[in-house]
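Entry 14. Ran structure prediction on the chain below.
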Amino acid sequence: MAFQLLKTLPGDASFHWFESLTERLYPAEILRLKSAEGINHRLLKSAYVLLQDSAAVARCCLYDNPDLSYQKNKACCIGNFESINDSNCSNELFRAVIADAKAGASEYIIGPMNGSTWDMYRLGITSGQNNFFLEPFYQDYYAGLFAAAGFEPIAHYLSNRDDGKDLHHERIRELEKRFIEKGMTFRNIDLEAYEAELEKLYAFCMEAFRNNFLFTPLPKEDFIAKYLKLKSYIDPQYVIIAEDEKRNMAGFIFCLENVYDTTQKGMIIKTIAKHPSVRYGGIGNILASRLKQRAVENGYQYMIHAFMIENNASKGLSQHFSGRAWKEYELYGKHIH
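Output, structure tokens:
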């Protein structure tokens, strides 16, 4: 049957077609969780829905991030992708989106990415494992649909799982002692002054992450809005901030309980970062060691080291703390000029 392509935006009368596809693809309990995915309205160029026989069969958003580039090519993003398991449908959708991306002078298209690496991105390629808190829900066959459209992996990510209780204190404690002697302090995030804390974290993250793969700056108000949504899930003792003798932030570790797991008590390391200065080398090890000690003492049975890009420092740190390969993800790209 013939396809019909709709271009729409949130608030348009036709946008219900965009939303209807998730209802077709996911059971009610997953739909509730997918609602957290959201749309990046600041970077949204257009939303697309492919119809067949008066039903939505594929959808996505085209995001135009002016700061995004890949291998010196201007890049844009395909995000919020959903489709039935039929490459004829997804290919038809991708062709329309890529034509608009070319018209907008993009040379490369990346997906799935909802606008930037601050938003949901990557596809899980490990099936048969339950999702953890803040991990996106996608159909297992989506990687095959991207491949069928000529997309190739441009980055590989891992989530490791640590079920061990070894704290690796010896070497870490000597390193920690040297930092403390130089005036380093370690404290928990202050939820009573949470927005002020987010202001500090924002400035730190813009500096600490600037050399990360596909990094683009984020407006401060967007950063604060994202983390305000997580406030009710935060236990302050699992968000640890390291500050030097002048109270400048040197590093932090941000963790949340895996609230999706109703059978075991698990902790997710969402973010661990240090200032790029070499004088702070080893801060990540200290923060991870402190965090793990608290988690073990409080009865947590495992820790997830989430969404590490392969070959970066976090992967080595995870392996040091008994992290074993558990889940894998790919991010895809395609040259379009």
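The two ends are 31 Å apart (CA to CA). Will compare against last week's run tomorrow.
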